[in-house]
């Protein structure tokens, strides 16, 4: 299998990122399911805490001048404010920031983080349907899962097309990979943190 994988090295950068993040992505999916965010609104609120923490750490990347020069609509793609509004809807206090946030990454590394953040919007199409079962919607409690303007698929295709077209050095490719893997690992940490504080009074 390993030999076959080596022989079938993905032609596109985005395909490679999907391949190298498969393991942390699978682990994160299993962890989300283990915390059963769609069983109760209280469980879902902890999930939103993790989403808010993650998105708020990426605000500076979504508004970075260098990155906006690459992806023009980047600032509008950020979901930190939507997650913040969801927490208010769910009567959940804003969490304190957790040490270890991404700090001054290289351009390529930052794009790795954004690749993971933007990619999660595709999965949100399924999550929003589950959230509806809790009495939530794209305008109440689950805003951060709402379909982006122009559609999920189009927004993702546009981002990936831009990412795949960039000219990167070998060093930048490595930084991009690191950013994507770090992003999955960071969300995993934030998710654990969000649910570990669930027993504490608000």
Automatic annotation (TrEMBL):
This is Biliverdin-producing heme oxygenase. One of its GO terms (molecular function) is heme oxygenase (decyclizing) activity. It holds the Pfam family Heme_oxygenase. GO terms for biological process: heme oxidation. InterPro entries: Haem_Oase-like (IPR016053), Haem_Oase-like_multi-hlx (IPR016084).
């Amino acid at each position: 299998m390993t030999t076959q994988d080596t022989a079938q090295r993905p032609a596109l950068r985005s395909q490679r990122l999907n391949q190298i993040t498969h393991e942390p992505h699978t682990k994160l999916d299993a962890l989300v399911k283990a915390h059963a965010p769609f069983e109760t609104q209280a469980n879902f609120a902890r999930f939103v805490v993790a989403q808010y923490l993650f998105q708020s750490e990426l605000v500076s990347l979504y508004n970075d001048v260098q990155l906006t020069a690459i992806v023009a609509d980047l600032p509008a793609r950020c979901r930190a404010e939507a997650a913040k509004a969801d927490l208010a809807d769910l009567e959940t206090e804003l969490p304190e920031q957790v040490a270890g946030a991404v700090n001054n990454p290289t351009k390529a590394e930052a794009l790795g983080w954004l690749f993971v953040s933007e990619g999660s919007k595709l999965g949100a199409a399924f999550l929003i349907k589950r959230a509806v079962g809790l009495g939530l919607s794209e305008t109440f409690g689950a805003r951060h899962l709402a379909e982006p303007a122009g559609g999920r698929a189009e927004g993702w295709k546009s981002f990936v097309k831009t990412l795949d077209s960039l000219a990167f050095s070998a060093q930048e490719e490595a930084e991009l990979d690191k950013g994507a893997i770090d992003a999955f690992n960071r969300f995993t940490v934030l998710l654990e943190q969000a649910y570990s504080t669930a027993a504490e009074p608000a």
